[in-house]
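Margin note from the TA: students keep mixing up input and output lines. Inputs are the sequences; the output is the structure of the whole complex. Example:
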Amino acid sequence: MRLHTGIRVAAAVAATALLATACSSGSGDSGDDTADGSGGKVELTFWTWAPGMEEAVAVWNEANPDIQVTVNKQDGGDPAVTKLLTAIQAGSGAPDLFQTEYQKIPTLVSEDALADIADVLPDGTAERFAEGTWQSVTLGGDAVYGVPQDSGPMQFYYREDVFQQYGLSVPTTWEQYAQVAEQLHTADPSKYLGTFSANDAGWFTGLTQQAGASWWGIDGDAWSVDIESAPVQKVAEYWGGLVEKGVIDNKPMYTPEWNAALNDGSQVGWLSAIWAPGVLQGNAPDTAGKWKMAPMPQWEEGDDATGNWGGSATSVTSQSTHKAEAAKFIAWLNASQEGVNLLVSEGGLYPADIPSQAEALSSPPEFFSNQADFYTLAAETAKGVQPFTYGPNVNVAYSAYNDEFGKAAEAKQASLFLDAVTAMQATTVDDLENQGFTVTK
Amino acid sequence: MTTLAPPRAAATSGPTRRRGSRRRGAAPYAFLAPALTLFTLFLALPIGYAVYLSFRTEIVQGLGLGSGARQEVWAGFANYTRALQDPEFLASVGRVAVYGLLLVPTMLGLALLFALLLDSRRTRATGFSRISIFLPYAVPAVIASLLWGFLYLPRVSPFYYVFDQLGWDVPEVMSSGLVVFAIANIGLWGGVGFNMIIIYTALKSIPTELYEAARLDGASELMVALRIKIPIVMPSLVLTFLFSMIATLQVFAEPMTLRPLSNTISTTWSPLMKVYRDAFTRGDIYAASATSVVIALATFAFSYLFLRLVQDGRAFSQESK
C-alpha cells in the first residue's frame, strides 16, 4: 500500500512536470491560477475529437476573456478514455472538459472520472433535451454527468440511382430489406445492399435498440445484463440468415476495402446514423448527390422505431477545480442557439438540443443537397429512438462482440450468430461479477 | 620493458597507492551510477510495480457509481489462476506457437541464405543488395502492417487485380485458415534483413586463410559454405534464433494493426494483445499485470532452456575453442 502511494505520487509529480513544460510553451502567464471564481482569469482545457470544436471555442474565447478554453484534439473515443483514466489514476493531468460518448458514461462514472454538475448548470437545461438523451447523462439518478452535445439516430442510406437502375423499392420493413438485398445480389452478384460488420459493436447495439433491447438495466442496487434476450436474438438471427445466404456481405466497415466498395457502387446501402453524410463525403467522394436517406426498415409494418449509433456529451472531469466556469461553457456550447449553430455549421453535428434545431438545421448537408427535407425527415426519425441503458462494462461487451461475431461472420452460419449472443452475455456477466458488482440473474 | 616501470613506482610510494586504490574502488560505481539509476527508474521499478499489481485487484461496491465505489485489495494468486485457466490465453499461446514455427525457421533460413550469397566471391553489387534486403527492417512494424493490409484486401490489392485479370481464383489471405501466414509474412519481410546483417558480419570476420586452405584441398564454394562458414557462424545463428524466439512471443503490432481489416483476428490473437485488451479495453490493469508476468517468466524459461540445450550440444563448442 505504501509503495503504491509512493509510486502514485512519483507518477503524479512526473505528470505535473510534463504538464508544466507543455503548458509553459503555450502562454506566458497561465501560472497564476487564482482561487476559484471571482475576478481571476480561468483557463480550461478541453479534450475532444469532434470536428469544428476549435472554431466554436474561438467564438467563446472572444466573448469571454475571463474563461479561456483551450482545445486539445484527441484521436478518438477509445484512446481518449484510456488517457483520461490514466490521468485519473495518477491523480493529476486530466483536462477540465472532456467529450464523453454516451456508452462510456457509466464506465467513467464508476471510475470516478466525471464531476456531478447538477448544482452549477443553468436552470432549464434538462428541459432542452429528449428524455432518453438526458437520461444517458444522469444514469437515471439526481446527478448530472454532462450536457448532451449530439446524437446519432439511425436511418437507412441508399444509392437512389442504383435502386432505379434495378427497379428496387425502398424497404420499409426488415422483411422487405431481405427481399431487396436478394433481388439486388441476384441481379448483380458484385453488389450488396449492406454488410454485417463484426467490428462495429455500436452499430449492432443500435440495431438491437430499435428492436427493443436494452443490454443493461439497474435493479435497485444491482445490475442486470440482458444481451441474451429475445430482441437481440431476433436481430442476430436475421443478420445471420442474410450472411449465410450470401446476399449481405460479411466484411467489416471502415476498411480501405469497404471505402472502395462504397465509392464504386458495390455497397448500395448503409444502415447508418445522422452523421453518415460526413463519412460518405470523406470515404466515397465520387458518389455525391446519388444517395438518399430513408427511415429505418421496421420489424412491424407502420412502426417508427430506431436506435442510436454514436453521439456524445460534454462533461466536467472530477479533477477540474473550475467546475462552475466549465459548466457555464458547456451550457453555452451544447444548449444555446449560438453554440448549437456553431456545432452544426463548423462541425456538421446533429445537435441534441431540441429548441435550437429548427434554426440550426435549415438546409440539408452538402453531400445530400438532392434531399431538401433531409433534416425534417431526420427529426421525425429521431423521435422514434427507443430507450436503452448502458452498463459499467460496455468495453467488455463490445470487445466480446468483435471476437464472437467475427467468428460467426467469417463462418457464415446463422446458428453461430446466436451462439455469439450467448457468449457475449456470459463474458459480460462474468466480468461484472469478477469486478465485484452485484448482478441479478 | 616500459610495463615494468609503473608497478615499481607504485611500490616505492605506499600511501599514494592505497589512496589510489580507494579512489579506484569508488570509480566503477561512479561510472555505473547513471546506468544503475536509469535501470532502477525505468526497468526495475516498473517491473516491481507490475509484479505488485499482479497480486492486487479492484472490488466494486453495489452499482459502482459515484466516488469511492472502487477499492483496491489484495488478490493473492487469483489473477494468475484466472490468466492460466483462461481458454483465450491458452489459445493465443497456441496461435503464436504456430506463428513461430512458420516464421522463425523460414526467416533464419532466408537470412542465412542471403548472407552466404552476399559473402560468396561471385556476387556483384553486394552493397546495394545488402541495403535493399536490410531496408524493410527500418520500416516500423505498424507501417509495414498497414501496407501489407492494403495488399491483402482483394478489392484494393494490385495483386488480386492481376490474379483476377488472369482468371485465377486466389483465396483471401486474411481468411481464417491463412491469416497466420499473412501475419508471419509481415514478420518475415521485416526480419530477414536484420538477421542477415548479424550473420553476414560473422561471416566477414572469418580469416581468409581458412578459405585458401579449403580451396587448395579442392573444396567447392558450396562445400566451403557448408563445412566452414555455417559451423563458424553457428554462435550468430544461436543468437538470432534466441532474438527471433523472444520476438515471436511478443508479436503485437502486426496482428493489432491488421485486426480491424478482417473478421479473423480476435482481440486476443496473441498473448500481448490479450494483455493490451485487459489493461486498456477492459481497464483491468491487475489481470494484465499477471498475464505480463507469466509471459515474462515463460520468455526467461524458454531462453534459458534453449541456451542450456545449445551449450550442452556441439554448437557452442565452436566458441569455447
